[in-house]
Amino acid sequence: MAGIRLAPEDPELSSQQSRGAVVSDLISDDERSVAADSWSIKSEYGSTLDDDQRQTDAADALSAANFPPAPSSDYSSDKEEVEAEEAVQSMLGLQSYWDSAYADELTNFREHGHAGEVWFGADVMELVASWTKGLCIDISHGQLPNHVDDTKSELVDQGDKYLSTWSVLDIGTGNGLLLQELAKQGFSHLTGTDYSEGAVQLARSLADRDGFANINFLVDDVLETKLERQFQLVMDKGTLDAIGLHPDGPVKRCSSSF
C-alpha cells in the first residue's frame, strides 16, 4: 500500500496561527463594547455624535488596538431604529423630559448666558412674528386676512396703534423668545405659559436680561389650565406636538381645549 507523505509543518506559521487563535478567544464581546463606548464622543452640552460617526470612530479604535473585528451580523437594525424613535416620541410627550431639558438650559443660562434653543430657528421666528403683526393689523382694521390694498403700508407704519389692543397668549412658551420677538413688533399685552417651572424661570430671566420685563410668564398646563381670562390671540409653536407624542396622546388631544 502506498504511503501518504504530509508536507513538513512550518513551526513559525503554526506558532503565529496558534497565538492568533488565543488572542481571538481571549477578547470578549464585552471588551469590544467597552472600546466602542469609549469613543462615543459627546459635545459640550452632552449630545452624542451621529451613529455613523460613532461606528467609524469605534472601528478605528478597535483597529488601533489590534482587536479583531466583530463578526458581521445579518440582524437588521430597523427594529432598533423604530424602538429608538418610539422612545424619543414618548419622552417628548412627558413633562419630566421637559423639566430635565429646561433645568439644563437654565444652568447653561446662569453659567454661560446662553438663551437656549430657538424652535425652528431665528429666521422662522422673526418671519412668524412679522406675519402675525400684519395679520392682527388687518383684522383690527376690519380687513380679511391676506387682503391687499393701497392702505396696507400705511397700516403697518401705524401698527403700534392697532397692536396695543391685542392680548396675546403663547402656550408652551419655553424660553419665551417668541414673545420677545412679538414685543419688538409692537405687541404689549403678552403672556407666556408652560407646565415646566424651569422653562418659566428661564423665560423670566431672559426677558429681564433683554429688557422685556413687561412680558408676563406663568406656570400652567393648557390641558388643566387655571387661567380665567381670555386672549384675543393664542399661539402655539410645539405644544400640540408634545401632546400628540404623549403615550396617551389620542386621549389628550381629544381633551385639549385650544
Architecture blueprint of SSEs:
Blueprint (H helix, E strand, L loop, with lengths): L10 H16 L2 H9 L13 H14 L13 H15 L2 H18 L9 H19 L11 H6 L1 H5 L3 E5 L5 H9 L3 E6 L2 H14 L5 E4 L13 E4 L2 H7 L3 H7 L3
Helix pairs in contact: 2-3, 5-10, 6-9, 11-12
Describe this structure in words.
The protein has helices at 11-26, 29-37, 51-64, 78-92, 95-112, 122-140, 152-157, 159-163, 177-185, 197-210, 239-245, 249-255, and strands spanning 167-171, 189-194, 216-219, 233-236. The chain has 258 residues and is an alpha/beta fold. It has 2 domains: 19-42 and 52-66, no CATH class; 95-255, Vaccinia Virus protein VP39 (Rossmann fold). Strands 3-2-1-4 form a 4-stranded parallel sheet, with helices on one face. Helix 10 links the parallel strand 2 (189-194) and strand 3. Helix 5 runs parallel beside helix 10 (197-210) and helix 11 packs across helix 12 (249-255). It is globular and about 55 Å long. It starts with 10 loop residues before the first helix and ends with a helix. Residues 1-5, 18-27, 32-51 and 65-75 have low confidence and may be disordered.
